[in-house]
Amino acid sequence: MCAATANPLLALVLTHSPVFAGYVGAASTIPALLMYLPAGWFVDRFNRRLLMFVGQLGRLAACALVVYALGFGGHPKPVLIVASLCEGSFLVLYSAAEITAVQRVVNPAELPSALAMNEARGHLAFMAGKPLGGFLFGQRESYPYYVNLLASLWSLVALLMMDKTNYQPQGADQPANTRPRISLFDGLKMVILNSFLRTVVVVCSVGNFLFQTVLLLLVVLAEQQHLSSARIGVLLATSGVGGLIGSVAAPSVGKHVRDERNIIKLCVVAWAALTFIVAVSAQPVVGLVAWGGLSVTGGFLNVAIVNHQTKQVPEHLLGRVIGINRFLTSGAVPLGALSAGYIVAELQPRAAAWFVFGAIVLTASAVPLLIRPGRWLPARTVARIKKRLAPEEIREPVAVP
C-alpha cells in the first residue's frame, strides 16, 4: 500500500507532469479490468498456496525494480509504468487465490469470522498504508519502497511457514482426461442463476461506478470552500474507517439475517439515504461523513459476498465465480473514475449529487426484479432460461424462482 501511494507521487516529482502521474495511477487499476478473469481460471487449476506465493513474489519484484531504477537506472519513467502494472496484476492473483485458500485452513464454523477479519485487515492496511506512504515519501523518495520490500519478504516467509494443507483445487489429483471440463461460461451461469450473486454483482457494479462521482464532487466542494489538504485527507480517511467498521460488524449482524438477500436490500436503501444527504447538503464535511457511511455498507456487503461464495459455490467453480464478480464490480471503479470528471464538470457538483441519488433510487427499485424475476417475467420465459443455462454439475442453492 505504501508503494501504491508513492508511485504517482514519484511520477509527479520526476516529471512534474500530472498527466504522467495519472498514467501511473491508471496502470495500477487496469489489472482490475483485465486480470480477474484469468486469475479465477488459474485459481481453479493450480495450487492456491503456490499462486499466493507467486503473487507476493511478483509484487516484491515490482517494488525492487523501482528501487533499482531510483538508485542505478537512468530512465525511471517507463519503469514506474511497468512496476505499477505488475503490482496491480500480481495483487489480483494473490487476492483471488487467498479467498479460496482460507476455507482450507479454517473450520467451517469459524469461516465467516475469518473472512470478515480478512476484509477488516484490508481496510486497516488501506487506512495505515496510504498516510504512511505519503509520510515516508516526504522523508525520502525510496523509503516507501523499502518498507514494501520488507512487508513482501515477510509475507513470503509467512507463506512458507503455513501448514502444508492440500491447497490443490478440487479434482487436481484425478487424471486430466477424467476431470470435469468447466469453462469460464460455467462460472457466468452460476452467477446468473444464483439470485444473491446476480443481484449483488449488478448492484455493486452500479454502486462502485457512481460512488466515484460522489468522491470527486465532495473533493471539488471541499476545494471550492478552501478546506486545507490535510483536512480533506482526514475526511477521506472515513472511507477506511467505515469499511473497517462494516467488515468487523458483519458476522454478528449476519447471524440475525435469515435471508442474506435482505442484506442487499438494506445496503441499497442505506446508499439512497446517504446519497440524499450528500445531495441536499452543500457542506463537504457532512458529505464526507456520509461517504464514510457508504463505506460501512461496502465493508458489510463485501463480507456477505465472500461468505456466500465460499459456502454456496461449488469449489471447482469458485475461482471463476470470484473472478467474474471482481471483474465486474472492481472494473467499474476505474470506469467510474474516468466518467466522474465529465459528470461533475457538465452538471456541477450539486446537480451531479442529485444525478447519483436518482441513479441509486432506480437501482434500488430494480433489486426485487433481480432477486425474483419469476414474479415479473412469464413462467415460460423463466423455465426456458433455467433450462438453457443450468448444467447438471452446478449446484444451485438459490435458484431463479
Automatic annotation (TrEMBL):
Gene3D superfamilies: MFS general substrate transporter like domains (1.20.1250.20)
Membrane topology designation: Multi-pass membrane protein
Cellular component annotations (GO), alphabetically ordered: plasma membrane
Lineage top rank: taxon: Bacteria
Location relative to the cell: Cell membrane
Keyword field: Cell membrane, Membrane, Transmembrane, Transmembrane helix
Protein's recorded name: MFS transporter
Species whose genome carries this gene: Actinoallomurus iriomotensis
Taxonomic placement: Bacteria, Bacillati, Actinomycetota, Actinomycetes, Streptosporangiales
